[in-house]
Amino acid sequence: MSDILYHMIADGPTPVAPFSHATEVNGFVFLTGQMPTDPGNDQAPLPDGIEAQTRRVMDNLILILDGLDLGLSDVLQCRIYLTEFERDYAAMNRTYLEYFEAGRLPARTTIGVTGLAVGALVEIDMVARRP
User: Fold this and answer.
1) SS3 9
2) In terms of pTM, does the model score above 0.85?
3) Which domains does the chain have, with CATH numbers?
4) Residue 54, CB half-sphere, CA atoms under 13 Å: how many?
5) Of 56, 66, 71, 76, which has the highest C-beta tally within 10 A?
6) Are 51 and 82 in contact (CB under 8 A)?
7) 123 contact partners, CB below 8 Å, separation of at least 6
8) Helix (H, G, I), strand (E, B) or coil at 28
9) What is the per-residue pLDDT across 19-66, written as a single tens digit (0 to 9) for each?
10) How many Cβ atoms are within 10 Å of 14's Cβ, its own excluded?
């Protein structure tokens, strides 16, 4: 078993809590759940609405994947957290689908929660594997 690697991506979003952007062991990469914060200005207001917040979260995850020389095609699993599950589930799904190749969707769980950091509507984490 190899040692755990702890990754902080220079161009990645500013963490909203004490964590690494990703950890890695034996080719598996675990990406911390990302918020819809602006990676260039963590004090900027969050985007309005679930579609815009889902895009920002996915784009933040892509920044981290890129920093690790990975892409969405390497993602095995996603967990999605929604504060307004009934209201936002369908719209979030439509936006989420824009990011993946048809027929190559990662395994996924979506969970309704009572709150998320920075007042976000959505948070997504991922597990990827090096090819």
Assistant:
1) coil
2) yes
3) 5-129 (3.30.1330.40)
4) 22
5) 56
6) no
7) 33, 34, 35, 57, 80, 81, 116, 117
8) strand
9) 999 999 999 999 999 999 999 898 999 999 999 999 999 999 999 999
10) 12
